[in-house]
Write a structure and sequence with these properties.
Elements (H helix, E strand, L loop, with lengths): L2 E7 L13 E4 L15 E7 L9 E2 L17 H19 L4 E7 L8 E6 L10 E2 L2 E6 L3
């Protein structure tokens, strides 16, 4: 099972300038069934060290919310670092006055299992952020 993370923003900044070994932005977008859910003109595929978007923190149960890594839910250290890198890029864009949203979806899930979530990064530490499967995230940083 594999997932895809796609991001949109209102800046024309070349996001590939943020690429690392753990986080990769690309204009090579597939035919995502959720791409029309993104709010902004500049759309980017967000990949991980694995090539797909699986190398980030993901939680199947959104009721657990955001939180730090836990022993009961083992995570790869690289996935944690990649997610922190993603959050830092989003924070940077927001601090420059840009808007950002993204969709995290699994290829095997029906489109009907799609949800929205507003995420205020001002209330989160970077390591607590994790993606929820089949969610549209709209980011802000309002204290």
């Amino acid at each position: 099972m594999c997932n895809e993370l796609i991001l949109s923003t209102d800046t024309d900044l070349d996001m590939t300038g943020f690429n690392t070994t753990l986080l990769v932005f690309s204009k090579d977008l597939s035919e995502s069934p959720f791409i029309d859910k993104l709010q902004f003109d500049q759309k980017w595929y967000v990949g991980s060290r694995q090539g797909c978007s699986c190398g980030f923190r993901h939680m199947t149960n959104p009721d657990l919310g955001f939180g730090p890594p836990e022993d009961w839910n083992p995570e790869e250290p690289e996935d944690i670092l990649a997610t922190i890198e993603f959050v830092k890029v989003v924070r940077l864009l927001l601090s420059r006055g840009h808007s950002v949203d993204c969709v995290d979806y699994w290829f095997t899930s029906p489109i009907s299992e799609y949800h929205s979530l507003n995420v205020n990064l001002a209330s989160l530490v970077d390591q607590d952020f994790r993606f929820f499967e089949n969610y549209h995230f709209t980011f802000s940083d309002q204290a």
